[in-house]
Amino acid sequence: MVSKAFLLTEMTWPEVQQALHTVKIAIIPLGAHEQHGPHMVESCDAVLAEEMGKRLTERLYPQAILAPTINMGVSTHHIRFPGTISLQPTTVIAILRDMITSLQQHGIQQFLILNSHGGNQATLGVAVDMLTSELNVRIYYAKTTASAKDVMDRRIESKMYGHSCDREVSEALYLAPQLVRTEKLEKADYQEGRWQHLRPGNPLQGFYYYDEMTRNGCIGDATKASADIGREIVETALDRLATSIKEVM
Amino acid sequence: MVSKAFLLTEMTWPEVQQALHTVKIAIIPLGAHEQHGPHMVESCDAVLAEEMGKRLTERLYPQAILAPTINMGVSTHHIRFPGTISLQPTTVIAILRDMITSLQQHGIQQFLILNSHGGNQATLGVAVDMLTSELNVRIYYAKTTASAKDVMDRRIESKMYGHSCDREVSEALYLAPQLVRTEKLEKADYQEGRWQHLRPGNPLQGFYYYDEMTRNGCIGDATKASADIGREIVETALDRLATSIKEVM
Amino acid sequence: MVSKAFLLTEMTWPEVQQALHTVKIAIIPLGAHEQHGPHMVESCDAVLAEEMGKRLTERLYPQAILAPTINMGVSTHHIRFPGTISLQPTTVIAILRDMITSLQQHGIQQFLILNSHGGNQATLGVAVDMLTSELNVRIYYAKTTASAKDVMDRRIESKMYGHSCDREVSEALYLAPQLVRTEKLEKADYQEGRWQHLRPGNPLQGFYYYDEMTRNGCIGDATKASADIGREIVETALDRLATSIKEVM
Amino acid sequence: MVSKAFLLTEMTWPEVQQALHTVKIAIIPLGAHEQHGPHMVESCDAVLAEEMGKRLTERLYPQAILAPTINMGVSTHHIRFPGTISLQPTTVIAILRDMITSLQQHGIQQFLILNSHGGNQATLGVAVDMLTSELNVRIYYAKTTASAKDVMDRRIESKMYGHSCDREVSEALYLAPQLVRTEKLEKADYQEGRWQHLRPGNPLQGFYYYDEMTRNGCIGDATKASADIGREIVETALDRLATSIKEVM
Amino acid sequence: MVSKAFLLTEMTWPEVQQALHTVKIAIIPLGAHEQHGPHMVESCDAVLAEEMGKRLTERLYPQAILAPTINMGVSTHHIRFPGTISLQPTTVIAILRDMITSLQQHGIQQFLILNSHGGNQATLGVAVDMLTSELNVRIYYAKTTASAKDVMDRRIESKMYGHSCDREVSEALYLAPQLVRTEKLEKADYQEGRWQHLRPGNPLQGFYYYDEMTRNGCIGDATKASADIGREIVETALDRLATSIKEVM
Amino acid sequence: MVSKAFLLTEMTWPEVQQALHTVKIAIIPLGAHEQHGPHMVESCDAVLAEEMGKRLTERLYPQAILAPTINMGVSTHHIRFPGTISLQPTTVIAILRDMITSLQQHGIQQFLILNSHGGNQATLGVAVDMLTSELNVRIYYAKTTASAKDVMDRRIESKMYGHSCDREVSEALYLAPQLVRTEKLEKADYQEGRWQHLRPGNPLQGFYYYDEMTRNGCIGDATKASADIGREIVETALDRLATSIKEVM
């Protein structure tokens, strides 16, 4: 699907050596392994981050190279649902430190962490602060499709979305349809709780478990997802990310 | 200025013992020690967090108690300006762990970290995730006046604000005027740079030093600040914070 | 290729919940991201560990479940070759701790770390010692095909093998031929050095960089590899591993 | 009260920049947040360290600058009394490392940690050992008034003193009378116990909780305290500290 | 017993200074403190490592110097037997880091860790990987007598040996007979268990407690031990170690 | 020399098991490996701690058991003299944590750390604070002969003593004469410096290297040492330590 792009996992060392003549930035996909309700599989975020990473690397050819995907992340909120695996924030930072240190030895000085999972964002904020001064490199990070917020607002009907919802299922239907159980699509099965006072936009933030909010593990309404919505979100985000990276690189 | 409130620093142990009969939540002010341009002193965030903490504790009397203020925070962005002291994110988390562990031994199970400094937010996100499961307590956090966003949007003229700006100087003029050198108020002395692609709302986030953005260390226009603007922001935020805490407590 | 097996990355949480009725052990594939000479791509070990994991999980159905693959490992020896990424041993142990802790919360008490990369073995020895007592679980580990040592000795002609050699290329040709550049197969380009006194079987062990030993990053003679050799090694090892796990489970 | 002194918390960055032309040493006050019996508030040590710091900085003007106060310390011994907050020794060392590292970036190479709390002394001994070689700076530390030991011996009647006693209350009456509940002054309410074999001067040292020793949390006899005793202790100590610092600076 | 050798513990600093003119490698003996059945004392491994270290240092005079012995190690497997003390792998690595860092400051750049205890081997593998790149030194390690494997195979009758067995008791009878209770020699008191599937040579490795395997804490048959067998093993190993070190030094 | 005492290093596990019926406290000798001038060898502190430990354990028979000696300690001050090895304070604490944790599993709940080296004292203060609450045990510590301060004051002529001086050489002549080069006894070769303002009794404390103080690494006057002085110091201290332990045990 990806026509021409430097994918580190699929290259030999002489090929990497050759690519490093033009490469200026490494893209590190960061996902999660966590429940996505009855209609998406647990590797969803890892796969979406990798698929976005491949397409972005392709657009930035020959200046970008795609590093291996970090396929687990900080998923404490989801740990009560069967199958979720959560890394400590300190573990994610350790992985990033080791990856950046290694790639820096090969001559790369700029990094984009391409993150598909909201639960990783605070950890990335901390990681970028710490590792920038520790390692003297430039580190950027982006939520995979967050820059297409206007498209989401126009095309997503659900008032609240963000996890195994209209938006995420749409992205998956476009990028990796094998992640979706199309015959099991459900909307959120919400329940009352403390979380209602802790969502973004409220005066307080705080930790709650996802099952305090939704019995089936989804929010929004996945039955309204479509590959076409996914396509518009994804392609818009990729355009904007590619443009931004070219500006700072 | 504060009429009746449980302030832990100003109590003896028998007084604390008595207060614990009604106290349900501890409020931990978190500030920073960092440059605030030519017109505010470096303790600005620590003092504002403490002042907000006192007022909020007063409103929640006798259910809240104010813990000592953490008077330094994560200020890597400002480290190139003379006088800035920055704690590692891991240090801030260690302080919070020790404070919460100690207060938990006295019977307190709920905590609000009241943070005045944007640079601490990612660290708090991580801290709350980690410490909630480690210690089995409820932890909330809030940016001191962020819940008055609508008031800011109405009364602040500068397009970009957030550090030693119209908003922050206004809050200080109302809460702690000794922090402000009123004879030295300046607006931002911006310069071109990479930061323009990394502000909130852009596709990318990333680390930059504050002096890449502004030569004098301020943003916005502090000459337009007033105690009256400060009053409206502060009082609105305090009302909303108090209401929210009562709802979740 | 895998007919019926519990693959955690490809399941929804209700499917995991159902599987946990019979699952007694989680299999964690551990690989590496490192140079494999001019004829194999850098993800080789990660892919082989995952492929072995799938097949072993299939044989142990419905008692085993396959966890996500740890796709980087301890590759300090290879860091001087372009593209290699090496995790600190402490990072690998942190990942394992987090994975096992998470899966333990879902009721799993036995773990097999299925490792394809020699450079991870010491770290696993330490990890198993530490995590067994910390977490009170049973942890086993195995080099993916080491139990077919007799087959290797019979079918591999090279005196020294172990990395991007006759053996490893054979395994790849059988399990994941896309990893191999069949048009670029080379034998080792050895050079004299300190490493000759540090190979297994010598009185001393010690660290050396792989390029001190071989200029092209391979050992043995990959031109003698075949899918048929790979098949015999792999299938023998899978049989023996499955038998052993059933005995201890 | 302090006439002319560089107080970092009350300066803007251009003022700090100017001061750094003459500043050779930074003074870091270190206190504690812990019970002080029925007649002193819990912030006692933090406030006394800061007050001593201000006065010492004044005497060393323009060669010293006062850093923000570390307002909590190692108070494990007091944790069973309501309100006490104790930091781990490792946390205190982390704070000191971050502060010294930050100030070093502004050009300061000498540091005095001015500590008012006995429970911090061992941690400081360790911190100074570790940080001196890590950071290649000169670090001194002093108990705030310990150098006036002869004055204490002459003017304090209680045989055992050191915590919320004749000495400490006297210092507070002179430096920060708001810390003292003068209407509640009590002498120690001792009880028998293991601690009697563990006080300084005994063959053994060891950990005991303060409530094993004294029911009301004090030692000595605070009813004999006076501002005049405090004045002599404090001023003698300040003279001696200032002299010593000038000698080594 | 040792005629001429640089033993760091028995030298004054001027003597060390003199020795450093010829010394090229430091030998660090690493043992353990753990149960050795009814017929050997718990310091067995520490003493044997030190004795081997002395003899090896003598053979390498004047190019080697013997560092102090690390007299405890990783003994988790034995912790259920009275008296065993086990260090965490991270503790052993910390000790090695500190020792090597110190000796490096005196000008030594090569190190041999001479280890008598199998349970330390994985930790050493990790230590050598980490410390080599951290400290930029050359580190070798060796099991004390492992290089005499052919002698053991020829002279030891027990099929399984390795801990307080024919081999180890023989080594002790030759090197340090005071370690052996000759009147209490016993052979292993084995029992059935999971361990049978986890010994070297099996497809799986994994952790088990030693008392799952042997009730008296021994394996093999110590009644067949002799000083003569010990002599041949020890002297052969010393010859081979000395030769190897000269080759790489 | 020691008639009847439980020495853990010299016991088999069945003997330990038997001893544990009466043992109530474990004694952990802690020394150092550091320069002791031209007339004492570098293992001095480790050997003296162990010798004192043996004698004290004998006096407390059958209630005490002697753990293995920690033969290196915190010797940063001496690191510039050839041969000195210094452990980080965190390493010493890790060793103590592991030892106490292990011995606690065998049923021992009280510990005495018997320390011969002043440079370890601050670390012990921290260790005892941290480990007491972490592990819920009773931990005592003592400088080996500090309780005989009155004897020292009476019999030692040098004004300043404490390291390879009249006192320490006397102790060694009595306890372990092999440590002393009697033909090379020297008094201190002092030089002027910052250290003069940092000795105990001065207002300031702080770190300095030992060679800033004394060119030959000694203080005091070792030529005045005698085994008889050593005997009185040692025997007095042992009596007092034994009495104190019996009181708290």
TrEMBL record, chains A, B, C, D, E, F:
What Gene Ontology biological process does one annotation of this record name?
A: riboflavin biosynthetic process
Query: Which coenzymes or cofactors are required?
Result: Zn(2+)
User: Which keywords fit this entry according to its UniProt record?
Assistant: Hydrolase, Metal-binding, Zinc
Please give one Pfam family short name: Creatininase
Keyword Hydrolase tagged? yes
Which GO MF terms does the UniProt record name?
A: hydrolase activity, acting on carbon-nitrogen (but not peptide) bonds, in linear amides; metal ion binding
The answer to whether the entry has keyword Chloroplast is no
The family classification in the record reads:
Belongs to the creatininase superfamily.
Q: Which PANTHER family match?
A: 2-AMINO-5-FORMYLAMINO-6-RIBOSYLAMINOPYRIMIDIN-4(3H)-ONE 5'-MONOPHOSPHATE DEFORMYLASE (PTHR35005:SF1), 3-DEHYDRO-SCYLLO-INOSOSE HYDROLASE (PTHR35005)
- Indicate what this protein is called per its UniProt record: Creatininase family protein
